[in-house]
Amino acid sequence: MNHSFPTSLRPSVRAVRHGLLAMLLVSGAPLVALPAVALAASEAQQGFNVPAGSLSAALAAFAEQAGVSVAMPPALAAGKQSPGLSGNWSVLEGLQRLMRGTGLEAVPGGEGVYLVRPLPEAGAGVELGATSIIGNRQDVSGPLRGYVAERSAAGTKTDTPLIRTAQSVSVVTRDQMDDQGVTSVAQALRYAGGTFAEYRGSSHRVDEVFSRGFGYTPTYLDGLSFGGESRSQVDPWMLERVELIHGPASVLYGQASPGGLLAMTSKRPSQDARNALQLGVGSDSLRRGAFDLNGQLDEAGTLLYRLNGVLSKGQAEVDHVDEERHALAPALTWQPDEDTRLTLLGYYQHDPEAGYRNFWPTEGVANSGRFGRLSRHFDVGDPDFYKSEREQSSLGYQFEHRFNDLLTFRQNLRYLQEDADYRQMVFMTMTADGRYLRRAPSASREELKQWVVDNQLQFDFQTGPLAHTLLAGVDYKRTRLDTDTARDLNWFDNYLLDSQNPVYHVPVGPLTTIDDNSQRAEQLGAYLQDQIEWGGWNLMIGGRQDRSEVETDNHLADTRVTVKDDKFTGRVGLLYAFENGISPYASYSTSFEPELSSGAPGSSPFKPTTGKQTEVGVKYQPLGTEALFTLAWFDLTQRNVVAWDSNLGYNVQNGEVHARGLEFEARGNLGENLELVGSFTYLKPEVTESAQAGVEGMQPARQPNHLASLWGTYQLAALGVPGLSVGAGARYVGSSYGDARNTYKVASVTLFDAMLGYELKFLAPELDGASVQLNASNLTDKVYAASCAGSDSCFYGASRTLTANLNYAW
Question: Which of 618, 612, 611, 613 lies closest to 632, judged by CA?
């Protein structure tokens, strides 16, 4: 595996260098002054599996596996075939074997480039023409074109082809997010397999994602834990890609839900990134501006910068509620040589109006009700009492140094602080006649401080025919969360709201503090993972030992409770990559997560929840195409599940949830004009053990059995309309149960999205780089309930949303 960094040379300088090298090849002059590093890299052995076929396709596949670029005049490959390659070879040996019988040879050109030229006796009289780069490896953290990511570091913490990763990983690229006009990370996952991304419907205050039947998927930014459950949020404009690791990921990340892990990658300084400006308007009085600026600060290109920002203001879908955001993300990369890189990453986000987060009644939302459906804009709170403000900032860095071809060290670190202030008239229950809503005034303040660091050593070496990528790491996380909550204890009939004739601006009585806690959580983990390749075989095996300590101070009761947990988690996966692009695999993995909630007063702390999963699947990447298909079957169990018992009035622990299902996801850049992404999910979750009466054997609430989606973007240049692109998508969310005892169902729904874009340079050449784009979500304005978590705990789905953006890129 190659770990060289993207070159810091300006494109014009690189082009000159490649041109000079090509001229030397044409002239037949020997290259006698190659860098020692290039020669050493060309001699190191690694495993290859390249099928026989056209020489161009074989060289492209070889370059992808080797992590190098191959430069060759196109005329040289015309009509030539390659016998293919399988086994362990150095880069130079592998290239020569691929070109046996073609009359060609390869020589190193430096910077990871290998140049193809005719053999001296075969090159007489050949007109070479221009030299082209036919192998170009994707960067797992940098910009890429289209909807298909071929490589990822999320599932393994190493740069690994997805076709050789024995686990299902969904990657949403920047291009897909731009085409679909997403304004939240949850929206970015609308078309990902195995994911119920917007169960809270039109509420955007946090990104809560259900994966494989389990909720509260933990969020990671740039490989590090980001904030706490249901708190921190990142604007998607600041991200290069959004990835979802399906299933347990504790072996690399520690405490995590068994359903999956959400991994986001920030935009970083890059020679491949373009500057961009965006101005937009939309439904609910939305006004939005965003910018993305990047470049180099010195002549040598050792200092690169990138600066992203967002300003937006509008109304929430619910009456009386606004949404406003100010966000800035600066980044600076120092790369003194090709072996060392340091990137500083900052983030600041202030949401003076962070959006609402409340419930709706079952009657009138999940069904028509005795008085008909409530309006989706109906405010169940009170505008005089309402407040929603959040401010978060973070600063960190990513450091990487390659000592040699065998050893690389990485350290990622970040400090995060968040302050939030919320007040809401919370909907509690309906009156017996179904007309009035009972509400309770509630106010809460939160202060979060978090340090997290991850140290990694990566060893790339051979043991006989086996190629190893060995990763050893130690990570540490320290979080302090201070919360206090106050409520009017006499709420029951004091704040009734008439659903047919609502009257707001109700005086609020004195609030009583019901919760005042300080919680300090520490986690220390050590992990070891080995990825072993032998021809087409890929074995991944890893283990992790975690130690966590959570100390909770209850300032009201003047008590302190300390919970310590030690847990080992592991993973093993086996995959075989056939020469035709098909890769079947099987894996087994485990997870654990400390349980921070409490049960009956005076009771012992809860045990941590644990999970285990078996996954069997197949991936297919057709040769010579930009497409990836993944089909996975999984069987997943979580133990020691905690649930709220409304009869007892506190949490109980003695539960087990079993989920099994089938996921299919397809992504493809089909030629220059059509890009597609689609998915289908069948999910069957079941509560197999429960301390609550009437729950065992039932299906957890909010979990659809079926999910399906399809989105496509088509460039109409092929039809004689250059510059015009259209996009369309459909999302199906199957029916789900609305409460733990499965007494009622939330109906299924099909939603449609659309996009229309145009490049203005086709109207006037001086407008090169400018474009306009229109997006529509829920195009038919379907009225539906997104999900329900229990009796009178429903969430309305978002209505039709329209946005128009003017973009300029250069």
Answer: 618
CB 253 within 8 A of CB 217: no
pLDDT of residue 4: 37
Place of tokens 């847990």: 567
Contact 571, 251 (CB under 8 A): yes
What domains are there in the chain, each with its CATH number? 11-133 (3.55.50.30), 276-809 (2.40.170.20)
456 in helix, strand or coil? strand
Residue with tokens 């059509």: 674
Provide the β-strand partners of residue 808.
277, 770
Side chain identity at 137, as an amino acid letter?
A: R
| Closest listed residue to residue 109, CA positions, set 89, 133, 126 | 133
Strand bridging mode 169-173 / 537-554: unpaired
Predicted TM-score (pTM) of the model is 0.83
Q: Write out pLDDT tens, residues 634-691.
A: 999 999 888 766 666 677 777 899 999 999 999 998 877 899 999 999 999 999 998 8
DSSP line for 17-81: HHHHHHHHHHHT-------HHHHHHHH-EEEEEE-SEEHHHHHHHHHHHHT-EEEE-HHHHTT-E
Residue 98: the pLDDT is 84
Q: Which pair of tokens denotes residue 146?
A: 């289209």
* 208-224: average pLDDT: 91
Residues 52, 82: contact at Cβ < 8 Å? yes
pLDDT digits (tens, 9 = 90+) for 279-296: 999 999 999 999 999 999
Reduce the secondary structure of 134-189 to three states and give it as a string. Answer: CCCCCCCCCCCCCCCCCEECCCCCCCEEHHHCCCCEEEEEHHHHHHHCCCCHHHHC
8 Å CB contact between 446 and 231: yes
Q: Which of 212, 227, 119 is nearest to 636 (CA)?
A: 212
